[in-house]
């Protein structure tokens, strides 16, 4: 579609050209979104979910670790009962 100059085109002609463009867009992409855009959105969503799951796993694993400072002792317990010797 070329450049439309108001002094050369009537209102009806402009309306017809706009409607023609809308019909062409609806025929090519009924939802108004191209397949390429959908694929990009799905890839981004998959990456975001993967990163979120990886972060959750790291947080859970890190939460199970504890480091003692120098001079402190700890007792390892399992179900509330001491297991093994004190750790220094």
Report on this model:
The chain has helices at 11-28, 35-63, and strands at residues 77-78, 81-82. It is mainly alpha-helical and 88 residues long. The protein has one domain. A two-stranded antiparallel ribbon has the order 1-2. The mean pLDDT is 76.
List keywords for this structure.
two-stranded antiparallel ribbon, single chain, rod-shaped, 88 residues, 53% helix, mainly alpha, 2 strands
In short:
This protein is mainly α and 88 residues long.
**Fraction of residues in helices?**
40-55%
Run of helices and strands: HHEE
> How many angstroms separate the termini?
80 Å
Quote the average pLDDT.
Answer: 76
The number of helices is 2
Total beta-strand segments: 2
- Category by helix and strand content: mainly alpha
Give the radius of gyration.
Answer: 33 Å
Low-confidence stretches: none
Strand order of the largest sheet: 1-2
Largest sheet: 2 strands, antiparallel
How much beta, percentage-wise?
A: under 5%
The geometry reads as rod-shaped
Tally of domains: 1
Q: Topology, please?
A:
Blueprint: H1 11-28, H2 35-63, E1 77-78, E2 81-82
Antiparallel strand pairs: 1-2
């Amino acid at each position: 579609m070329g450049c439309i100059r108001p002094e050369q085109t009537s209102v009806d002609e402009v309306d017809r050209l706009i409607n023609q463009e809308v019909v062409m867009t609806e025929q090519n992409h009924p939802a108004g979104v191209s397949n390429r855009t959908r694929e990009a959105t799905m890839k981004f969503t998959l990456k975001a979910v993967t990163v979120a799951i990886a972060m959750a796993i790291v947080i859970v694993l890190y939460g199970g670790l504890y480091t003692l400072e120098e001079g402190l002792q700890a007792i390892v317990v399992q179900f509330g009962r001491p297991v093994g010797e004190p750790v220094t």
